[in-house]
Design goal:
The protein is α/β, with parallel strands linked by helices and 312 residues long. Helix content is 39%, strand content 22%. Bound molecules: zinc ion.
């Protein structure tokens, strides 16, 4: 692969779509955020993205779509299926049976892969981030939802028909009952999504705190904040105990908005996990923070995935 090659990483979210252009070293050359059009015509939206990308290429790199330096597009979208290249049903976007890979290849005039965003974030961390040193790790994104990406034997594990790795929906033991966004009960996501954490904060304080406020009060030694951190750390550790005993990873890498709680939070989770986990794994699984930006993890991962595919 030539050193001057570049790739697109794109993350289509419910509200915004993020688009970055990267070089082979994982350096972000340019970046845009565009509102996601919730139309019945996803093809038109991909055409608009291609026009936007044409502006980025010409104004910042002085090249055009179709240039030989462009390796391809790696794109994340809700419910994106790597194997079929399609999004079967994404209620957040109002999309049904969208052949997303085909649309990208048509309008961007280069190879494309699609994938769910947590899987992409895991691939990005493996290539350029906290996962570089590990052959086996689980990336957990704690954001609007809770996602997981499994790197096993240095490769992304997708499960049959790309339906595996949904670590946000493991059931955790709990004295309470709380619904998950998927309709299930007491899933990891019920407690560790941004909404879940806010619910816990409001139950314990009757106040409305942001994650940042929780983090700074905790670091300042506030007793209520410490109680909240202990509770959510125990909930997260319970999930890690089940996932960890199954895969025996070297590490859990925490990404997403909640990763802003940082290393002090990780240490509490580490302690709880080591208390609860099977004796064979005590002290053996690290907990680290994702190093690619919490907002752009899937964008980095998209570029990492298409670079990896192109070098096969
Ligand atoms: Zn669920």
């Amino acid at each position: 692969m030539n050193k001057d090659q570049i790739a697109f990483g794109i993350d289509i979210g419910g509200t915004n779509t993020k688009m970055g252009i990267f070089d082979l070293e994982g350096k972000l050359l340019c970046f845009r955020t565009i509102p996601t059009a919730k139309s019945q015509d996803p093809e038109l939206f991909i055409e608009q993205l291609a026009q936007e990308s044409e502006h980025m290429l010409s104004s910042e790199l002085n090249i055009k779509l179709g240039d030989a330096r462009i390796v391809g597009v790696g794109a994340g979208a809700p419910m994106a299926n790597y194997f079929t290249g399609a999004v079967e049903h994404a209620p957040n976007l109002g999309w049904k049976n969208v052949p997303l890979k085909k649309h990208f290849e048509k309008y961007f005039r280069c190879p494309a892969v699609i994938e769910n965003d947590a899987n992409l974030a895991a691939v990005g961390e493996k290539k350029w981030g906290s996962g570089k040193e590990f052959t086996d790790f689980i990336l957990i994104t704690l954001g609007t939802g809770v996602g997981a990406g499994l790197i096993l034997n240095s490769k992304l594990y997708r499960g049959f028909n790309a339906l595996g790795g949904e670590g946000g929906h493991v059931i955790i033991p709990h004295e309470k009952k709380r619904l998950c966004s998927c309709g299930g009960m007491n899933h990891l996501e019920s407690y560790l999504s941004a909404k879940g954490i806010k619910e816990t904060i409001s139950e314990l304080t009757h106040e409305d705190w942001t994650i940042e406020k929780l983090g700074s009060l905790f670091r300042a030694g506030d007793l209520k904040a410490t109680a909240i951190i202990n509770q959510i750390a125990t909930e997260l550790a319970s999930g890690f105990v089940s996932i960890g005993v199954l895969f025996g990873p070297q590490a859990f890498v925490i990404g997403g908005g909640v990763s802003k709680l940082g290393d002090t939070f990780n240490q509490v989770v580490q302690k709880k996990m080591d208390e609860l986990i099977h004796f064979s794994l005590k002290g053996k699984i690290k907990i680290v923070t994702a190093t690619l930006s919490s907002e752009k993890g899937a964008v980095y991962g998209g570029a990492a995935l298409i670079f990896d595919e192109a070098s096969k």
